[in-house]
């Protein structure tokens, strides 16, 4: 199966990217070239194969490590906001959010 | 009327609930920043909460323990292995551009919540025991807040709340009316505070409900649902659902189809409106979070948690029925809160008859608490004092009416330093107010004789077989004793004197 | 020791510093001067002489007090996807131009001053190294700050994404550097630049402070001029980070440098690798690989046989599937990992926008380069509704099959050997607009990455146009010590790793 320009534009919206038409068409070509080699996967029979999400599963049971419920983080707002594009009264400013 | 016919203009209302319960942990679910409410903006948002480049999540054990407590409390299955997933979407209050939640394999599966649904007024009040099935409960992180007061056309983002642990509790579409929705929400609210996983503070957003509402003709397949978000008051919950139901029926009646939507309730207009920000069809691209291996919960951990659970409201209510012979409904009301149940048991322990104590607490005490807007833990009359008072009613020392006066007096005086002292005040007040019933038979007989002598007409009528005439005579005696006589006793003495 | 300071390796420098035969300030100044002189290589993105010398002086004071730490005073440099307090961190992206992290990555802290209860190895940071944007690339030609160049031929790529790290080490600008490897980003540039690099077992080094590209694959590791030097750095970098990275392994850190010189148990000094079984996967030696690379790799294998190792043929039948599997899994994770770059809390924000949506789109459209946007798009697609099972899930299943191939192979051998890349370094711009052909060139490094296995690149001679060729060694999980030992024994018997590129004359004055 191959992607259409509409697909590319929908994905770009979803990913918050803004390609112009030329760029979208360029991507379309490259994406389809890529998915051509991806299609090889579909031929492989993976029935009953558990997906491998964490490589550590391969050499022992992986279990989420849990930490104690303690507060250790001090207020470092000034430091954290030093590199922020727009702040006021300690708040990050963004274009009006409409609910 | 029976619950099955809870129809609105011939439509059946179908409601499912999603409740976000903020878990009472000190630190956040994936970071070691504080969760305290009300701090200055972004002073409790650490590098992890802000999603600074290179930061990673590390799970808080206490949040998992809260989920286990809840699962046990609703008789659910605690998954020995559950998985955290990323829910991807862009929003300024979502720092990573995804929310860490549980999708395919949540930590809590199933379970149920039961409660009494009551409708009608006074004599024709009806009650029905209802059970709502839970689909699941899963752990996830909260987002920050967008402050909409105007920063010259911009919104301000406060990320203090980002990363606060939530348990999202999802029901089957088992709810059939706005009243039942509120009853369910109240029961859930009671349970999560009862087992100590949530402070229950709805103003601060610790308990937020989303209601999925649809309507259908009975027997028809489910209608299209609209989700009402962020119902954080029981009052608005009922208003919002009622409005939404009316609106949906109106649409259908006018031949318009309902479109799936997320709506907000505006308390001022009393209406719901679709959220604009949710318009573009969401595609959350869920996938297992590679930063977090599966959450593994060993059986013995679950068992350890089980031993730390308090007696649950349902179990306690059943015990009240067996141990104290109370009706189911009394038991349910008395287990509204641990404090209420404790007050009742303390009163009985101090010698009061269970049913009498139950009646008094549910009627006299409840009314005064409501009027004074007090919680029972702040009740000025201590259980020991109430027990003594109820004892005086039981042994005929005072009438029920007189007991109310004593109770009001105790209430007004407020609790004494030492419990025994307030209990002692009961008899003192009965004396001082002269509320003791007249139990001196000799004196009473004399009065009875006088009344008989002075009311020949009634006497004649009574002897002629006119029962009513006796009541007049009883009234005369009561009058003569300023109401201190025991009406039953007077009745008997009269009959005997008149050779009845 | 007569060679110029920049010729010295980590082990030699650490020893000389500990014996106070040289000061950290001297070494640091000498290397800073070299970095200046070879700025045209584009290896460094950030140098801060003052910050570096401050650390060097502090190290000299500690040495004067007789304090000891494994790398005390030794200058190294960090790939720019590892965050640092004292240097800007850009990940090679315009998105993070001028970004300063309020904290050091765990591996940076452990190599340097320490923290979180870790003493720190005492290394001095010289600066930050160029790389492909967000580590997405294999030529370091996809850095927003211009390409890094291959010291063996400046018209060629140094490989990527840790191209700056490999180029800096090969050009003798630093004795060692950190890199990160997601699909080959340590091994392939090490091979292209004729230096030694190791990608540890997934989870061996903390990822805290490593700007995430593909979370289930990313691993930091050292690049140096010898296996011994890699061992010294890895010993400091490895180990659990329980409070910061849930995927870091519980296995305690090891001293990988210990016992490198010893022969295997029962082996003689002459044949120190006696008893070591090296698996040779037929799939790694077919016509996908160019003749010059194959020749060098075969010669290296022959050397291992002389050292006592025995070669056994193994099969890795799903090798080819690693390309689609990796290029689905990595972009999927990347599309999500890079969502945080939204212009709200840090980094680039577009100058003009009508509303929130446009602010996001312009910010990301301007901040991310084409390859990053391409991978975000691929990742968004394979995770999107209706395609998840066919792509992402399928790829994760194939990932397990690929891993199982390795586990079976390791029943018959102790290590697996083969080429790192099918060719030597290509010309800058050669694959500029053909991403897919660049993807195909990752064929030999992707499988071990998907399986989370440790892999090394060891200099194994030269191929076409006198460009370096790397031998890849892949070990079972947590077999870093075995890898480093075999590589070290090979390097005692060969001198490929000591060869310096002619473009950077190594006379004391240079």
UniProtKB/TrEMBL annotation, chain A:
Its ancestry begins with: Bacteria, Pseudomonadati, Pseudomonadota, Betaproteobacteria, Burkholderiales
Q: Which gene encodes it?
A: gatC
Show the SUPFAM superfamilies listed in the entry: Glu-tRNAGln amidotransferase C subunit (SSF141000)
Family (UniProt): Belongs to the GatC family.
Tell me, what is an example of a GO biological process annotation in this record? regulation of translational fidelity
What job does this protein perform?
Allows the formation of correctly charged Asn-tRNA(Asn) or Gln-tRNA(Gln) through the transamidation of misacylated Asp-tRNA(Asn) or Glu-tRNA(Gln) in organisms which lack either or both of asparaginyl-tRNA or glutaminyl-tRNA synthetases. The reaction takes place in the presence of glutamine and ATP through an activated phospho-Asp-tRNA(Asn) or phospho-Glu-tRNA(Gln).
Highest taxon of the source?
Bacteria
Q: Which UniProt keywords apply?
A: ATP-binding, Ligase, Nucleotide-binding, Protein biosynthesis, Transferase
Question: Keyword ATP-binding on this protein?
Answer: yes
EC number(s) per UniProt?
Answer: 6.3.5.-
User: What is this enzyme's catalytic activity, as reactions?
Assistant: L-aspartyl-tRNA(Asn) + L-glutamine + ATP + H2O = L-asparaginyl-tRNA(Asn) + L-glutamate + ADP + phosphate + 2 H(+); L-glutamyl-tRNA(Gln) + L-glutamine + ATP + H2O = L-glutaminyl-tRNA(Gln) + L-glutamate + ADP + phosphate + H(+)
What protein is this chain from? Aspartyl/glutamyl-tRNA(Asn/Gln) amidotransferase subunit C
Cite the record's note on assembly. Answer: Heterotrimer of A, B and C subunits.
Q: Which GO terms describe its molecular function?
A: asparaginyl-tRNA synthase (glutamine-hydrolyzing) activity; ATP binding; glutaminyl-tRNA synthase (glutamine-hydrolyzing) activity; transferase activity
Q: Which HAMAP family match?
A: GatC
UniProtKB/TrEMBL annotation, chain B:
Taking every annotated instance into account, which residue ranges of this chain make up the domain Asn/Gln amidotransferase? 342-498
Q: Which GO terms describe its biological process?
A: glutaminyl-tRNAGln biosynthesis via transamidation; translation
- Annotated coiled-coil positions are none
Q: What terms describe the molecular function in GO for this protein?
A: asparaginyl-tRNA synthase (glutamine-hydrolyzing) activity; ATP binding; glutaminyl-tRNA synthase (glutamine-hydrolyzing) activity; transferase activity
Catalysis: reaction(s): L-aspartyl-tRNA(Asn) + L-glutamine + ATP + H2O = L-asparaginyl-tRNA(Asn) + L-glutamate + ADP + phosphate + 2 H(+); L-glutamyl-tRNA(Gln) + L-glutamine + ATP + H2O = L-glutaminyl-tRNA(Gln) + L-glutamate + ADP + phosphate + H(+)
Its EC number(s): 6.3.5.-
Q: Which UniProt keywords apply?
A: ATP-binding, Ligase, Nucleotide-binding, Protein biosynthesis, Transferase
Query: What this chain does, per the record?
Result: Allows the formation of correctly charged Asn-tRNA(Asn) or Gln-tRNA(Gln) through the transamidation of misacylated Asp-tRNA(Asn) or Glu-tRNA(Gln) in organisms which lack either or both of asparaginyl-tRNA or glutaminyl-tRNA synthetases. The reaction takes place in the presence of glutamine and ATP through an activated phospho-Asp-tRNA(Asn) or phospho-Glu-tRNA(Gln).
Q: How does it assemble?
A: Heterotrimer of A, B and C subunits.
Query: What PANTHER family does the database record attribute to this sequence?
Result: GLUTAMYL-TRNA GLN AMIDOTRANSFERASE SUBUNIT B MITOCHONDRIAL AND PROKARYOTIC PET112-RELATED, GLUTAMYL-TRNA(GLN) AMIDOTRANSFERASE SUBUNIT B, MITOCHONDRIAL
Recorded hits in NCBIfam families, A to Z, give:
gatB (TIGR00133), PRK05477.1-2 (NF004012), PRK05477.1-4 (NF004014)
Q: Which family does it belong to?
A: Belongs to the GatB/GatE family. GatB subfamily.
Protein name (database record):
Aspartyl/glutamyl-tRNA(Asn/Gln) amidotransferase subunit B
| Biological source species | Tepidimonas charontis
Q: Which classification does the entry list for the species? A: Bacteria, Pseudomonadati, Pseudomonadota, Betaproteobacteria, Burkholderiales
Which gene name does the record give?
Answer: gatB
Automatic annotation (TrEMBL), chain C:
Catalytic residues in the record: 79 (charge relay system), 161 (charge relay system), 185 (acyl-ester intermediate)
UniProt KW Nucleotide-binding keyword:
yes
- Where in this chain does the record put each Amidase domain? 26-484
- A Pfam cross-reference name: Amidase
Name the keywords, alphabetized: ATP-binding, Ligase, Nucleotide-binding, Protein biosynthesis, Transferase
PANTHER family this protein is in?
Answer: GLUTAMYL-TRNA(GLN) AMIDOTRANSFERASE SUBUNIT A, TRANSAMIDASE
Write down the HAMAP family for this protein, in alphabetical order: GatA
The record's comment on protein family reads:
Belongs to the amidase family. GatA subfamily.
| Protein name per its UniProtKB record | Glutamyl-tRNA(Gln) amidotransferase subunit A
* Organism name: Tepidimonas charontis
């Amino acid at each position: 199966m191959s992607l259409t320009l509409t697909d590319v534009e929908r994905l770009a919206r979803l990913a918050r990217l803004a390609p112009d038409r030329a760029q979208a068409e360029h991507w379309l070509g490259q994406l389809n070239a890529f998915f051509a080699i991806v299609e090889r996967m579909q031929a492989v029979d993976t029935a009953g194969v558990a997906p491998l999400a964490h490589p550590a599963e391969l050499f022992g049971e992986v279990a989420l490590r849990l930490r104690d419920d303690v507060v250790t983080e001090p207020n470092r707002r000034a430091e954290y906001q030093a590199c922020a594009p727009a702040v006021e009264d300690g708040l990050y400013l963004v274009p009006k959010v409409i609910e | 009327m029976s619950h099955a016919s809870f129809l609105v203009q011939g439509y059946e209302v179908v409601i499912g609930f999603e409740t976000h319960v903020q878990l009472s942990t000190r630190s956040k679910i994936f970071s070691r920043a504080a969760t305290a409410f009300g701090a200055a903006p972004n002073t409790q948002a650490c590098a992890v909460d802000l999603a600074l480049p290179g930061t990673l999540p590390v799970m808080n054990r206490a949040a998992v323990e809260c989920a286990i407590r809840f699962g046990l409390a609703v008789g659910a299955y605690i998954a020995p292995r559950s998985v955290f997933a990323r829910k991807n979407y862009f929003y300024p209050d979502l720092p990573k551009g995804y929310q860490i939640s549980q999708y395919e394999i949540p930590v809590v599966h199933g379970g149920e919540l039961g409660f009494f649904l009551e409708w009608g007024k006074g004599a024709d009040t009806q009650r029905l025991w209802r059970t709502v099935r839970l689909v699941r409960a899963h752990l996830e992180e909260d987002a920050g807040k967008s402050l909409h007061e105007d920063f010259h056309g911009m919104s301000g983002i406060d990320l203090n709340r980002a990363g606060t642990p939530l348990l999202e509790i999802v029901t089957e579409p088992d709810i059939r009316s706005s009243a039942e929705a509120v009853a369910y929400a109240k029961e859930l609210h009671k349970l999560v505070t009862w087992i100590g996983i949530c402070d229950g503070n709805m103003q601060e957003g610790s308990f937020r409900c989303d209601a999925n509402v649809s309507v259908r003709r009975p027997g028809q397949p489910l209608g299209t649902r609209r989700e009402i978000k962020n119902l954080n008051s029981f009052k608005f919950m009922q208003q919002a659902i009622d409005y939404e139901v009316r609106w949906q029926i109106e649409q259908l009646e006018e031949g318009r189809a309902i479109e799936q939507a997320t709506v907000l309730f505006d308390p001022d207009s009393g209406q719901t409106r679709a959220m604009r920000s949710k318009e573009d069809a969401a595609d959350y691209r869920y996938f297992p979070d590679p930063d977090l291996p599966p959450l593994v919960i060993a059986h013995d951990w679950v068992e350890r948690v089980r031993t730390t659970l308090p007696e649950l409201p349902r179990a306690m209510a059943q015990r009240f029925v067996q141990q104290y012979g109370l009706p189911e409904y009394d038991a349910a009301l008395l287990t509204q809160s641990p404090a209420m149940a404790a007050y009742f048991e303390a009163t009985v322990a101090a010698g009061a008859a269970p049913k009498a104590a139950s009646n008094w607490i549910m009627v006299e005490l409840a009314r005064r608490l409501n009027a004074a807007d007090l919680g029972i833990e702040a009740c000025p009359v201590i259980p020991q004092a109430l027990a003594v008072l109820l004892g005086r009613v039981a042994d005929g020392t005072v009438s029920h009416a007189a007991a109310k006066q004593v109770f009001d007096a105790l209430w007004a005086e407020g609790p004494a330093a030492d419990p025994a002292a307030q209990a002692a005040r009961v008899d003192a007040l009965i004396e001082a107010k002269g509320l003791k019933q007249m139990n001196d038979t000799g004196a009473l007989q004399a009065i009875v004789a006088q009344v008989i002598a002075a009311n020949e007409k009634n006497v004649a009528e009574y002897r002629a077989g006119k029962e009513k005439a006796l009541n007049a005579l009883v009234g005369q005696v009561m009058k003569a004793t300023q109401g201190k006589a025991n009406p039953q006793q007077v009745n008997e003495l009269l009959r005997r004197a008149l050779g009845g | 020791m007569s060679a110029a300071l920049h010729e010295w390796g980590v082990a030699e420098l650490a020893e000389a510093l500990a014996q106070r035969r040289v000061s950290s300030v001297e070494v640091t100044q000498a290397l800073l001067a070299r970095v200046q002189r070879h700025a045209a290589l584009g290896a460094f993105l950030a140098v801060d002489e003052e910050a570096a010398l401050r650390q060097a002086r502090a190290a000299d004071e500690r040495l004067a007090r007789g304090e000891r730490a494994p790398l005390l005073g030794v200058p190294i440099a960090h790939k720019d996807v590892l965050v640092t307090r004292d240097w800007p961190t850009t990940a090679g992206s315009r998105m993070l131009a001028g970004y300063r992290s309020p904290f050091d990555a765990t591996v940076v802290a452990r190599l340097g001053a320490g923290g979180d209860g870790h003493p720190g190895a005492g290394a001095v940071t010289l600066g930050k190294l160029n790389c492909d944007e967000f580590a997405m690339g294999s030529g370091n030609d996809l850095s927003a700050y211009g390409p890094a160049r291959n010291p063996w031929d400046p018209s060629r790529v140094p490989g990527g994404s840790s191209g700056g790290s490999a180029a800096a080490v090969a050009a003798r600008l630093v004795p060692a550097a950190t890199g990160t490897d997601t699909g080959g980003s340590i091994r392939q540039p090490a091979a292209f630049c004729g230096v030694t690099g190791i990608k540890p077992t997934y989870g061996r080094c903390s990822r805290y402070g490593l700007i995430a590209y593909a979370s289930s694959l990313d691993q930091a590791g050292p690049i140096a001029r010898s296996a011994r030097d890699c061992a010294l750095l890895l010993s400091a970098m490895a180990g659990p980070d329980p409070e910061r990275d849930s995927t870091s392994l519980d296995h305690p850190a090891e001293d990988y440098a210990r016992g490198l010189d010893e022969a295997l148990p029962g082996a003689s000094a002459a044949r120190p690798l006696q008893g070591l079984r090296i698996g040779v996967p037929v799939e790694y030696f077919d016509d996908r690989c160019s003749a010059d690379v194959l020749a060098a790799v075969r010669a290296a294998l022959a050397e291992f046989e002389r050292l006592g190792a025995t070669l056994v043929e193994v099969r890795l039948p799903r090798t080819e599937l690693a390309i689609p599997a990796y290029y689905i899994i990595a972009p999927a994770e990347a599309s999500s990992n890079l969502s945080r770059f939204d212009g709200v809390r840090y980094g680039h924000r577009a100058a003009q926008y009508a509303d929130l949506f446009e602010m996001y789109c312009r910010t990301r459209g301007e901040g991310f380069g084409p390859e990053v946007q391409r991978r975000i798009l691929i990742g968004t697609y394979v995770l999107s509704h209706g395609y998840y099972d066919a792509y992402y899930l399928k790829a994760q299943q194939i990932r397990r099959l690929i891993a199982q191939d390795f586990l079976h192979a390791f029943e018959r051998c102790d290590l697996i050997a083969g080429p790192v890349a099918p060719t030597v370094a290509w010309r800058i711009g050669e694959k500029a607009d053909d991403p897919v052909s660049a993807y195909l060139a990752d064929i030999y490094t992707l499988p071990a990455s998907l399986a989370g296995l440790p892999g090394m690149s060891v200099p194994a001679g030269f191929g076409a146009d006198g460009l370096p060729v790397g031998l890849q060694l892949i070990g079972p999980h947590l077999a870093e010590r075995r890898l480093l030992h075999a590589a070290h024994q090979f390097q005692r018997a060969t001198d490929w790793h000591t060869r310096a590129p002619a473009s950077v004359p190594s006379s004391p004055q240079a």
